[in-house]
Amino acid sequence: MPKIKLHTKSPHIDMTPMVDLFSVVLTFLMLTTTMRQPEPAPIDTPFSISDRTAPDANIMTLLLSEDNRVFFNIDNGSDTSFHFKGKILAEMGTRYNITFTAEEVKQFEAYPSSFGMPIQNMKSFLNTKDAKERESLQTKGIPIDSTDNQLAFWVLVTRKVNPAVQACIKGDNDAPYPLVKKVLDILQDKNVNRFNLITNLEATKVTQSEE
Amino acid sequence: MGEIIQEEKQKGGKRRPKKHSTHIDMTPMVDLMCLLITFFMLTTAFSKSKVMEIVLPEKIKKNEKVEPPKIAESRTINIILGPANKVFWYPGMVKDSKNPPILQESDYSDQGIRKLLLDRNKLLFKKVAAFKEQMIKENPTMSRDSLNANIKRFNKADDSGPIVLIKAYKEARYANIVDIIDEMAICNIVRYAIVDINYVEDAMVQTAMGSSTPTKTPQN
Fold this sequence. Notes:
The complex is a heterodimer. Chain A is an alpha/beta fold. Chain A has a domain at 75-201. Chain A has seven helices and six strands. Chain A has helices at residues 16-32, 84-95, 102-110, 122-127, 131-137, 150-161, 177-189; strands at residues 47-48, 52-53, 59-64, 70-74, 166-171, 194-201. Chain A has a five-stranded mixed beta sheet with strand order 1-6-5-3-4, covered by helices on one side. In chain A, α2 (84-95) crosses α3 and α2 packs across α6. The longest helix of chain A is centred in the first third of the chain and has 17 residues, at 16-32. Chain A starts with 15 loop residues before the first helix and ends in a 10-residue tail after the last strand. Chain B is α/β, with parallel strands linked by helices. Among the domains of chain B are: 69-121 and 161-215, Nucleotidyltransferase, domain 5; 122-160. Chain B is elongated and about 115 Å long. The longest helix of chain B is centred in the N-terminal third of the chain and has 17 residues, at 27-43. Chain B has a five-stranded mixed beta sheet, with helices on both faces. Residues 214-220 of chain B have low confidence and may be disordered. The two termini of chain B are 63 Å apart. In chain B, α3 (122-138) packs across α4 (144-157). Helices cover 38% and strands 14% of the residues of chain B. Chains A and B meet through α1, β1, β2, β5 and α7 of A and α1, β1, α3 and α5 of B. β6 (194-201) of chain A pairs antiparallel with β1 (50-55) of chain B, so a sheet runs across the interface.
């Protein structure tokens, strides 16, 4: 009788399928990713049952924080070659007699998050890389008083440069109503009557009474 | 995870040249990929944020003379968003500012303001259900989209549901507004508007708050 040969199995595990899968997932994530932008102030959005998704481009977002600050964010339109952000900044500069260098405009276009400071501080904001200093410049938010209503100008200029822009309002749960009212008033003064309120989708099931 | 090299023990004196295995040690690569995947998973904003659309009526310019729209008093419900997540409501309108109607207190739960609104909107729900049945009977092959569009048009033309006026007291929060607009969507309220609170209602909220919280600490 022939001896049964016992194969000594190597402790290797064939990792090829695993690596295949990993590469697929990794490629997918790398291609679809849109980085989560850090917000300058913590914003806890309220819940609603609305399941409409926010538009991808051509939006201006107004952030209302709990401590009465207003932040503003605009995008470059559906294509970065439009350079909407740069144009808006330049236009704001001419209104407030501030000339922004090409480098600063580039910096502004690349800045992905919301900002909230008087336009007078914009120059130093764009020239610093230090996150702490940037934060210290944004302690007041964008001025919305009737004496120095810079938010109204931001809205006006944005709509002038990019007429297709839609207004989104991202408010914190605890943002006080008078602030909300004021911001809505400013927008309505500039003939923006359609707003998108950014909310989280509520998981609770809605029971509709049929009787 | 090091590679364990097995030494082959051979009894005979003949030593074969060791064959190089075709395996490549993929462990470091897998490690790196794991890290990258974790990183991307955590930084990706997968769920795009949802939006709730509201359209406010155009502002009346100062030099413009526009009659405010007339609405039936019997159908009107005033909802006042109060401080500390309270909701107050009263039907109709304030006829006599010296003797304002009493505010009813409610909340944002589904037993609170939603119950009231659904109750008031019962007639419309019935009508919509009947309309839907009729539509399906008439045209069983109708697509869901056009059915929904028809129902939407039917809703718009309706004149039995309540008209809700939403007013916010100065201490209301942003979440309250979103909540109440959400309730409007849930209860299928066709006509609602966000309007400014007037001073009579301000006082009404203050008295209602005063009576509902008699043991208020004087610090605040």
